[in-house]
Design a protein that fits this description.
This is Tryptophan synthase beta chain-like PALP domain-containing protein. InterPro entries: ACCD_DCysDesulf, TrpB-like_PALP, TrpB-like_PALP_sf. It comes from Mesorhizobium metallidurans STM 2683. This protein has two domains: 10-29 and 72-168, 3-Layer(aba) Sandwich (Rossmann fold); 31-64, no CATH class. The strands form two sheets. Strands 1-4-5-6 form a four-stranded mixed sheet, with helices on both faces. Strands 2-3 form a two-stranded antiparallel ribbon. It is 27% helix and 18% strand. The chain has helices spanning 39-44, 71-86, 101-107, 136-142, 160-168; strands at 10-12, 35-37, 57-59, 89-97, 115-121, 146-150. β4, α3 (101-107) and β5 form a beta-alpha-beta unit. It is α/β, with parallel strands linked by helices and 169 residues long.
């Protein structure tokens, strides 16, 4: 299997770091794992769970990093980025809505020197004329990502716009 094969989200070429192995992870959790108690659920089910459970904790992925509330999207990158580095990958390519949290977090790959190409599609109708220039897409551009706006609606499956971006990288 050649470099990047079997990993369609990766582009090949420049080496970024020593081979870290695909089983390695990148630690992105600045504050550790936090939990919150679900008080309303506890009050609602108090009689049903009397004596069995005191609190019901919820894992707060939205508070796990210093990267603007990356949550579970950031956790995925803890595995993808070391795999990309081990494969001599220089660019991450992904697709999402114009205001996607996922694409904003992928743009943070610039922090470790990777290039990032974001295919931003219009999955949600919007009337605001600045919708594609503010919020997450603005942050992605500020982080150094190349952003391609594509006027396609939402669909499940491999996107033509994404395949085109992969081909061009």
């Amino acid at each position: 299997m050649g470099q990047g094969e079997g990993r369609p989200w990766l582009s090949r070429n420049a080496s970024l770091a020593p081979d870290s192995g695909s089983s390695q992870t990148l630690s992105s959790s600045a504050y550790g794992t936090s939990f919150a108690s679900l008080f309303q659920l506890n009050d609602h089910r108090r009689r049903e769970y009397a004596g069995k459970i005191r609190t019901l904790p919820a894992h707060r992925e939205d508070c796990n990093s210093g990267l603007a509330f990356g949550g579970n999207k950031l956790r995925k990158l803890e595995y993808i980025i070391p795999d990309a580095i081990a494969s001599d990958t220089d660019t991450l390519v992904t697709v999402g809505d114009v205001q996607s949290n996922h694409t904003r977090i992928v743009a943070a790959a610039a922090k470790i020197g990777m290039k990032c190409l974001l295919v931003q599609e219009s999955w949600v109708p919007h009337e605001d004329v600045v919708y594609d220039r503010v919020g997450n897409i603005l942050l992605s551009r500020t982080l150094g990502a190349e952003v391609r706006l594509v006027d396609e609606g939402f669909d499940i499956g491999i996107r033509r716009s994404w395949e085109k971006a992969l081909y061009e990288v």
